[in-house]
Structures are given as structure tokens and as C-alpha cells.
Design goal:
alpha+beta; Nucleotidyltransferase, domain 5; 4 domains; 7-stranded mixed beta sheet; 6-stranded mixed beta sheet; 16 helices; 29% strand; globular
């Protein structure tokens, strides 16, 4: 049975949609019941996370801790606290602590199930094990909350203890939705699917949602449920709007148009880049490294994990709250660990830290009462690599003639809470209506729940690249380079199936390719950034995977491969031409 049929089955039978938003910096989950969705789509349950010290967040930090045996130990704030405790007593050696590891999958061309991640101490572990452990934790945590919610719900309906006998069938009742960046390649999406399946999520009950699409669905649903006419106008019939999902690692951008039937029609292929909040973090730490020296920061990290974690939190909070003040002498106060200054003085016997600041002869960086006082212009500059990359990309999109009708920009994601970023976008795009929803940081995960209940709300997408295969045609010296000639054939010809930017409709857009299985049991798939590539060796072309056909080894069978485009993932099925029987076929994008 084709994967597309499986998706249709999931949609018609599930009672609950459970979504996991796996982020670079923070992760979370949400879920809702089908009958609640039908009455009120926004009745979605989520979870608040706490660090145990009074801080509550809508998502928990994406941190994973393994013990010395390589077994999963903790996730999120719990992992952070446990690792800090181990470090303070010098017992952390051999434990493996991972953070910001999702970016490993971004635009990686050699991604495999053997790809390794490097931990806090420089040791490695298979990436699939780390991702799978994190997803399993979130899934288990979600199921615990869901079971409790489901039991209370049944009791309120039945009003007796018999509700205890009514359980949830994980394999049948729940449709799981896992969010992924829209700009990710096919191998990264398949990697996440494999990790989710290894975490115990049934593959037939798993759907991937593109993060900015999910955010668009949530924002439209939330805005139309309010009486804010100025925002509701952004989602009226034929209106076009851009969603900018500002995550920790990547910025993900989509543009949609509202159709007559209120479905969303993608009018521009997903785009974006690695310009999220962690890019600002890199600039801040580069500044500290230039000020204190790399060795000093490394010593602090090695000798005091607790103070290092406190510094991470301080800088994250300062990053989100920073605003450029009108005063020319505006300053930013940073409370850094006292041991950072002490380590500097110990490592630089000829010059104390205060002497260094004096030598710099600048009032832009000072130390007063244990705090580092920085001129706001210096701190503001740390945002500009991220902001400039983003605004340049957005301006390039908006200059396109087919983007003239885009009147609204919607900012979502955790990084959208950053004041200086929000203001920069508003100042740059004065002709656009900028909307930042109240639940910007949870728009993706709640939108993923809505998408799970109604995947058909996205009625079309745009091909993010040109897909095709390598083929051979009779050699014509008038048009074919001699370097591609083999006997009487021209090889390595890029046979285009779907050109970049093509409108593709989920469940309907498909391409059929026929080949003889006696020659091969697989078909190589290539992609290109060009609309009409000539050869698979052209610049911008690369092999992305293959279609594996099973059960045909040694046989000479003519097979039709049906490739289906338009969903969040590519689907494939194969049929024997002579009998019409279906043959097992699947895309494999992991090398």
C-alpha cells in the first residue's frame, strides 16, 4: 500500500492529534481531541516547563544527557541541572551532554544513520541515538499528560469510575505530527522520521508538518477567532501573507494565498537560512572571546558548568529583552560569573582584566561593581549579522513581481520575541503590516495540531527544487558534448520530472517513470537549483537519494514508478506493467 493511502487512513480514523515541535534551542508538544477540534479548533492542550527555580516557559530547552554507559538520563531543564551538579562535584567526566544539535541536519549533504554528534566534552555519539532519545522523552511525557487528560475527560462524561477502563490505543487513536523546517532537504526529513519511529512512534501514524506552514494555519485560525478586524483582513479571500518562522537555528519563510474555500495556497517555495537566534549567540560569545580570550572561556566551561549555564541563561534573557535606547550613552549591563575575571587574571599575570580595559582606552566597555557595562552600539552590532542576512533575503523576495500582493508579514518562533529584531523588521518594511501573535513561540506546535486534524488545508505547494533522474538518450553531436558520449548514447542527461517553483497539489501531482528491473532495482534521484538542468553534472545539481524497488532481483520486469509530489514528504509506489500488481518501493535519501 502506498504511503499516500496511509496518510488518508490516518486522517479519517484518529481521535487525537499529538504534535512535537523539536527545536534547536527549545522543544515542546501540544495535543487536542478530535471532537474538541470540531467544536473549537483552538482548544489545544500544551505543557509549561519549569527550571525548578521559578522560571516557567512554554517549551523546554533541547538538551539531552546520557550517562557513562551511553544510556539516556535526562532531557531539558532536568538535564541542564543534573549536568551542572555532576560538574560541580567533578563527576561529569564520561557523561554525554548535547545542546544545539538540531543544526547538524541543516543542509548536510552527507547525512546518514551513522552520522555522529560531538558532545560538551568532545566525545561522539550516533546522531540518530540522540535525536531518537529526545523524541522518545517528549513522546512519553506527552502520553503521560494525555492519558491524565483523557481519563479526566472520560470521567466528566461518564461520571463514574468505569472511565478507568477506557484507554487510549497508541497505535490507532493518535496521529503524531512532528515539525520540521520547510527549508530542510529530503534526507533531513527522512532522518527525523527514522528517529521518531525508533522512538516508538508508529510510522503509519506519523505525519511531518512544515514549521512555517503550521504557524500560518495557527495564526489564521487564531486571528479569525478574535474581533481584531485589522489583523483578520490579512486572511481574507485572495489575500497573500508571508510567515517568518524565527527559530533558534534557522529562519524559515513561506508565502501563502487564501483561496475561496479558505484553504491555503503556497505561492512561493520555502526559503530561509541559518540566521536564527543562535547566530546572535555566536556573535556574543565571539565578543567575549575577544575580550577575555578563548582559553579563559574554555577554562570556565571546564571547571564550572554551573556558572557557564548561568551565563548562558543571562545572555539568552538579555538577547530577548535588549532594546536600542534613544540616548546616545545607552548601556547594556551584563552580570557575568565572577570567576571569569579571576581566571583571566590568573592566566594573564602581567595584566589584570581592569588593566586590559584601561589599555583599550575606550569607555565602550567597562567593569563596575562586578558587572560588565557595554555600549549599546556594540551589543546591537552582535545582532546585525543575523538581522542583515534576514532582511536582505526578505527584501529580495518582496522585490519579485509575483510578491507584489504580499501585504502582511507574520513573525513567529522564539526568536520573534527579540525586541531589536522585531523593530528592525518593522523599520525596514514600513509598507507591510507586521503581525506578531500573542502565542508566537507556540504558534508552530499548535499549528501542527491543527494541520494534523486537517492536512488538506494546504491545497498546494511549490516545488523547492527541480527533481529528476539520470537518463541516456541517442547521442546527437549537434547538441550533446562529447564528454557525455558512451558508444551511441549520451549519458548523464538530467530528465526533469518537476521543475523548481512548479505548483504541486498533495495527492494529485505525480510523475510516472518506467524501467526494466533486469537492468537495475533502483532509480537514482537528482535535484537542481536550475529550472532546466541539462546534465546531472551541471553546477547546482546533486544526487539526493534513490528509489529502492524490492522483490525484483534477477527478474526482467517492466515496472511503472509513480512519484507523488505535494505532501511534506515525497511518496512513491511501483506497479508491474504486465500484472498491475504493486511492488514495494520507497525513497531513500540517507546515504
Amino acid at each position: 500500500m502506498s504511503q499516500r493511502v496511509a496518510v488518508q487512513t490516518r486522517k479519517s480514523g484518529h481521535l487525537i492529534v499529538a504534535a512535537i515541535d523539536f527545536g534547536t534551542t527549545y522543544s515542546g508538544y501540544a495535543y487536542s481531541f478530535k471532537d474538541h477540534y470540531q467544536r473549537n479548533p483552538l482548544q489545544i492542550f500544551s505543557h509549561s516547563w519549569t527550571d525548578g527555580h521559578g522560571l516557567f516557559t512554554t517549551k523546554g530547552p533541547t538538551l539531552v544527557l546520557f550517562d557513562k554507559n551511553g544510556d539516556f538520563n535526562a532531557f531539558g531543564y532536568e538535564a541542564e541541572e543534573k549536568y551542572a551538579q555532576l560538574s560541580s562535584s567533578d563527576k561529569h567526566t564520561g557523561w554525554k551532554y548535547f545542546r544545539h544539535f538540531k543544526m547538524t541536519l541543516h543542509n548536510r549533504t552527507n547525512l546518514t544513520l551513522k552520522t555522529k554528534l560531538r558532545d560538551d566534552q568532545g566525545k561522539t555519539m550516533p546522531a540518530i541515538k540522540v535525536f531518537s532519545a529526545a523524541i522518545k522523552y517528549l513522546k512519553t511525557h506527552l502520553l503521560d499528560k494525555l492519558t491524565e487528560s483523557y481519563y479526566n475527560r472520560q470521567q466528566s462524561v461518564k461520571g463514574n469510575a468505569a472511565a478507568k477502563d477506557v484507554g487510549i490505543n497508541v497505535n490507532d487513536d493518535i496521529l503524531w505530527v512532528l515539525t520540521v523546517p520547510a527549508i530542510w532537504n529530503d534526507s533531513a526529513k527522512q532522518f527525523m522520521r527514522v528517529a521518531a519511529v525508533q522512538a516508538g512512534i508508529p510510522e503509519s501514524q506519523l505525519l511531518l508538518a512544515l514549521e512555517p506552514e503550521a504557524a500560518a494555519i495557527f495564526c489564521r485560525t487564531a486571528v479569525l477567532s478574535t474581533n481584531k478586524s485589522d489583523e483578520a483582513g490579512a486572511f481574507k479571500k485572495d489575500s497573500q501573507f508571508m510567515v517568518i518562522d524565527l527559530g533558534g537555528g534557522t529562519v524559515d519563510i513561506t508565502v501563502h494565498k487564501v483561496h475561496n474555500d479558505e484553504k491555503l495556497h503556497e505561492v512561493y517555495p520555502p526559503s530561509g537560512g541559518p540566521w536564527g537566534g543562535t547566530l546572535v549567540d555566536e556573535q556574543i560569545y565571539e565578543f567575549l572571546e575577544n575580550l577575555f580570550g578563548r582559553k579563559v572561556l574554555q577554562i570556565l566551561q571546564k571547571e564550572s558548568k554551573t556558572e557557564t549555564l548561568d551565563m548562558h541563561r543571562t545572555l539568552e534573557l538579555k538577547k530577548r529583552q535588549f532594546k536600542v535606547m534613544d540616548e546616545e550613552d545607552g548601556k547594556v549591563n551584563l552580570t557575568l560569573p565572577s570567576s571569569l575575571y579571576e581566571i583571566y587574571d590568573e592566566e594573564n599575570s602581567e595584566e589584570t582584566f581592569l588593566d586590559r580595559l584601561e589599555r583599550l582606552k575606550s569607555n565602550k566597555v567597562q567593569k563596575k561593581r562586578g558587572r560588565l557595562i557595554i555600549d549599546q552600539d556594540i551589543f546591537h552590532e552582535m545582532f546585525m549579522k543575523s538581522i542583515d542576512s534576514l532582511t536582505e533575503h526578505l527584501e529580495a523576495i518582496c522585490r519579485r513581481h509575483d510578491m507584489a500582493e504580499v501585504k502582511t508579514l507574520i513573525l513567529v518562533g522564539g526568536y520573534s520575541e527579540c525586541d531589536v529584531l522585531k523593530q528592525s523588521i518593522k523599520d525596514t518594511f514600513t509598507d507591510k503590516h507586521v503581525i506578531i501573535p500573542e502565542e508566537a513561540s507556540s504558534a508552530v506546535v499548535k499549528g501542527a495540531v491543527l494541520f494534523g486534524h486537517n492536512p488538506d488545508i494546504i491545497d498546494s505547494r511549490r516545488a523547492p527544487c527541480t527533481y529528476g533522474i539520470s537518463s541516456a538518450v541517442p547521442f546527437d553531436p549537434k547538441i550533446h558534448p562529447a564528454m557525455h558520449k558512451h558508444r551511441d548514447m549520451c549519458e548523464d542527461v538530467f530528465k526533469v520530472f518537476i521543475p523548481i517553483g512548479t505548483e504541486i497539489v498533495p495527492g494529485k501531482t505525480q510523475v510516472i517513470h518506467s524501467f526494466n528491473t533486469a537492468q537495475s532495482s533502483s532509480v537514482e534521484i537528482y535535484k537542481s537549483i536550475s529550472e532546466h538542468p541539462s546534465f546531472i553534472t551541471d553546477p547546482g545539481c546533486e544526487k539526493v537519494g534513490e528509489i529502492d524497488i524490492s522483490g525484483t532481483a534477477g527478474e526482467s520486469t517492466r515496472v511503472d514508478i509513480i512519484m507523488k509530489f505535494g505532501d511534506t514528504e515525497l511518496h512513491v509506489e511501483a506497479k508491474e506493467q504486465e500484472t498491475g500488481n504493486k511492488i514495494s518501493a520507497k525513497f531513500n535519501f540517507l546515504r
